[in-house]
Specification:
The protein is α/β, with parallel strands linked by helices and about 500 residues long. The chain is about 25% helix and about 30% strand.
């Protein structure tokens, strides 16, 4: 709780069906740049330091309750078994906590752009004025379908008039009810008991409480949100996409003003949970998700996706997918690399083109330049892994570990069949399948001696393009060996000898 002595409770309404989302997922659980819609609302409310936070659940109650337990374990949930309107939802919640007093802040669970500072200002206005209720308002260009804020001649609050009930003059008003309130809990309880269901939907509307409080002579205040987008909710996928774009712009603008370069902000997507240092460069089509952290001076992109990944200072990641990886300072990753969970790269490691790394510790200065799979492995410092290398870690039942020492050199097209160890300073020959340990400083060779079967193609594949090519090559070879068919080999050799002898003399 804050330094103010007045108790505070936050109540989030998240029981709606969200039919227009047309989804098996409850509306408030749809993701939006690092959090769910509900997660964003809970994060905005947390700085209020309320004594209690309560989420009213309904449709998908089990899913929503589990999510609340995960992202806001300090919050409680209350079930609204039958959805009979916003006023009914608040009444159900207050019935579950009869001991509540002080200020109750009521939020919708689908307003992810709401800022903590706006909520703090709303509560401050409410408590400073001693009002029975305080309504958050916003100025919008198109207020169609929204409740209008009607004011008296002196500018004080008069009423909330729903669009369907408004006169033409009232519909011209562009100040709207944002659906976010602060109430005196005791006065709110009394007003809720007077709510009627005599309306088109047969529901109890929380907005009707405002009129009831005014009728009883209690003061109602307003607080105006400077940014109207904070009041935007979400009813379908199109509106969700609009919210996502607005949040992208907000996040990117904040990071650029904090010293991050984005070459194309429109194609750069950064979750609210990501941390970026100064002088980071994000190139087009970069996607940063989850708990990703980027160190100072690192360059990411183009075409990079990082999920829960740490990137060290001055590292470079190009056209790569990294999930749960640790990339050390001054590393180079990509293009077309895939780092899976457990990939840990020390300083100055190079992971090149078409390389996949999983659950592997790779030492400082080591290079895996191209066309390789490194899984369940430990590789020392300043080792070079040859092209087309595979760490054979799975026997069909269990995963096994491979160890490559420091300053080792492994040949191209190697297979390391785990468990196996290659010592410090060892080499392995190209084309080898290494199934036994290679001692430090040794050369591991594990391949059969080459044998050529002469004439096989002409005998086994006559009439094919390969056979014809072979015949042409053989004819050309024979002609080169004997350029004048009319001269005997001995004569040609003798003539050549005479020419050379003349040159020598």
């Amino acid at each position: 709780m804050s330094g103010d002595a007045r108790p505070r409770t936050v109540l989030v309404l998240a029981a709606g069906e969200g039919k227009r989302m047309k989804s098996a997922t409850p509306k408030v659980l749809h993701p939006l740049l690092g959090r769910t819609l509900l997660g964003h609302v809970l994060a905005a409310a947390q700085p209020l330091e309320a004594e209690r936070t309560v989420v009213v659940v309904g449709r998908g109650a089990e899913q929503v309750t589990a999510h609340v337990s995960e992202v806001a374990p300090y919050a409680d949930t209350v079930l609204q078994a039958e959805q009979r309107g916003t006023g009914h939802a608040v009444r159900v919640a207050l019935a579950a906590y009869p001991e509540l007093t002080g200020t109750l802040v009521v939020l919708n669970g689908d307003v992810p752009l709401l800022r903590p500072e706006t909520l703090r200002e709303l509560v401050h206005t409410h408590e400073a004025t001693g009002s029975a209720a305080t309504v958050l308002t916003a100025e919008v260009a198109d207020p169609a379908g929204l409740g209008r804020i009607v004011r008296n001649e002196d500018g004080s609050f008069a009423a909330i008039v729903e669009h369907r009930d408004a006169t033409d003059e009232q519909r011209a008003i562009t100040e709207i009810n944002a659906g976010i309130y602060a109430f005196d809990v005791t006065l709110l309880r009394d007003a809720l008991e007077k709510l009627s269901t005599d309306n088109d939907q047969g529901e109890e509307y929380l907005t009707d409480v405002i009129a009831l409080l005014r009728t009883d002579g209690h003061p109602v205040a307003t607080h105006h949100a400077a940014d109207a987008t904070e009041a935007l909710g979400c009813n379908d996928r199109a509106e969700l996409a609009r919210l996502r774009k607005l949040m992208q712009q907000r996040i990117n603008t904040a990071w650029m003003r904090d010293g991050v370069t984005m070459e194309d902000p429109d194609s750069t997507w950064v979750d609210v949970t990501v941390t970026l240092a100064r002088d980071v460069v994000l190139r087009p089509n970069t996607y940063l998700h989850g708990a990703t952290r980027i160190g100072e001076g690192a360059q990411i992109g183009p075409e990079v996706t990082l999920i829960d990944t740490t990137v060290g200072e001055a590292a470079t990641v190009v056209r790569a997918q990294c999930d749960g990886a640790e990339i050390g300072p001054e590393c180079s990753v990509g293009p077309y690399a895939y780092l899976r969970p457990g990939a840990k790269l020390a300083r100055k490691v190079k992971i090149g083109t078409y390389v996949e790394v999983k659950k592997a510790d790779i030492g400082e200065g080591t290079k895996v330049p191209h066309l390789s799979y490194v899984g369940d492995a430990t590789i020392g410092e300043y080792t070079n892994i040859g092209a087309a290398t595979v760490f054979v870690n799975y026997d069909g039942v269990q995963k096994h570990h491979t160890v490559i020492g420091s300053h080792a050199r492994t040949g191209a097209d190697n297979m390391f069949v785990a468990p196996v160890t290659v010592g410090d300073g060892a080499y392995t020959a190209a084309g080898s399948v290494i199934t036994q340990d290679v001692p430090p400083g040794a050369m591991g060779v594990a391949r059969a001696r080459q044998r050529n079967v002469e004439g096989w193609v002409l005998r086994r594949r006559p009439g094919t393009a390969a056979a014809e090519a072979a015949q042409r090559a053989q004819a050309s070879t024979n002609t080169s060996a004997n350029p004048d068919p009319g001269v005997a080999d001995g004569e040609a050799t003798s003539e050549t000898g005479r020419k050379r002898g003349g040159d020598a003399g």
